[in-house]
Write a structure and sequence with these properties.
The complex is a heterodimer of chains A (234) and B (56). Chain A has 234 residues and is mainly α. Chain A has one domain. In chain A, 75% of the residues lie in helices and 0% in strands. Chain A is built from 7 helices and no strands. In chain A, helix 2 packs parallel to helix 7 (191-233), helix 3 packs parallel to helix 5 and helix 4 packs antiparallel against helix 6. Chain A is globular. Chain B has one helix at residues 10-55. Classes of the chains: A mainly alpha (234), B mainly alpha (56). The A-B interface holds A 1, 19, 23, 27, 32, 34-42, 45-46, 49, 88, 91-92, 95-96, 99-100, 102-103, 207, 211, 214-215, 217-218, 221-222, 224-225, 228-229, 231-232 and B 4, 6-10, 12-13, 15-17, 19-20, 23-24, 27, 31, 34-35, 38-39, 41-43, 45-46, 48-49, 52.
Chain lengths: 234, 56
């Protein structure tokens, strides 16, 4: 049992400060959007959590490839950590989107291409944990996880591209890239909004790294406990 | 005639941020609890391991 490294303790404090500053920038510093009102402010955390959510799913797919190539269990632990942290963040993304949609679209949920692909992505990774638990043999479980996250990882770019490829069928606004004429709730970012936006991206990236570190330590402890249990049973 | 008042949607904004911090808080608590339980398990297993040679 190794004590928490000083670097991780510092990262914990930095993460809390960055999250607090990001909330301040979103709630106080950024101007109120005139058409949508204060609900537009959820956009900063919506995008921040979506970024790290999709990033983690892609990292899990890369870890899956690395496991298949090396058979090193470290990659399996990394993959599980990335999927778990990202599933939590992506849940916040979907929930915030739904809260924003209620006053802007007049509904909590609609089967828009972006919302549908996001919901499928989240469900793919919820199923990942359920299916993993059903496999007892560690190597078999790791091999299954690697192939699953490799295929599941495709849902991340599909979700990102869905509003760009299906512009005529989506009402979801496009923040980066060519704006969609059909979008409902679109807005132009002012310089102060950009500050809050990019800071949120940065803050959530740091929080993601912090959570990943903690989750990896947990996975390493689990591995150690399993080895000790095996020894004890011999 | 063309003036439009900004709607009061602050309730949704508050709900969104409360939910975000709540989910993050629950996840942090889950990591802490799992970490504590695993530490206890490891201590028990290590003490069992240390007792084994003594019995022989």
């Amino acid at each position: 049992m190794q004590p928490r490294p000083i670097a991780l303790k510092i990262l914990d404090v930095v993460s809390i400060i960055l999250l607090a500053v990001s909330a301040y920038l979103a709630l106080v510093f950024a101007p109120t959007e005139l058409v949508m009102g204060d609900v537009q402010r959820v956009f900063y955390f919506h995008i921040g959590t979506a970024w790290v959510g999709l990033l983690g799913f892609v990292l899990a797919a890369i870890a899956g490839i690395a496991y298949l190539a090396t058979k090193n269990m470290m990659w399996d632990r990394f993959e599980v950590a990335a999927v778990e942290v990202s599933t939590v963040f992506f849940f916040i993304t979907i929930a915030l989107g739904s809260i924003w949609a209620r006053p802007i679209w007049g509904t909590w949920w609609t089967w828009d291409p972006r919302l549908t692909t996001a919901a499928i992505t989240e469900l793919i990774y919820v199923a990942y944990f359920m299916l993993r638990q059903g496999i007892e043999e560690p190597e078999k479980r790791a091999r299954f996880g690697a192939v699953y996250t490799l295929l599941g990882g495709l849902s991340a770019p599909i979700t990102f591209m869905s509003i760009r490829l299906a512009q005529s069928r989506t009402i979801h606004p496009v923040v980066i890239g060519v704006q969609n004429a059909e979008a409902k709730g679109d807005f132009g970012m002012t310089p102060d909004m950009r500050v809050a936006f990019f800071f949120a991206l940065f803050a959530f990236t740091v929080v993601f790294i912090d959570f990943m570190w903690h989750r990896l330590r947990l996975a390493n402890m689990q591995e150690k406990a399993e080895q000790l249990k095996l020894k004890a049973s011999m | 005639m063309f003036l439009q008042t900004t709607p009061d949607t602050s309730g949704y904004m508050i709900a969104g941020y409360v939910l975000s911090f709540l989910v993050i808080g629950i996840y942090v608590a889950s990591i802490y609890i799992r970490n504590r339980n695993l530490k206890q398990d490891l201590e028990t297993l290590q003490s069992l391991q240390a007792e084994k040679p003594k019995k022989k």
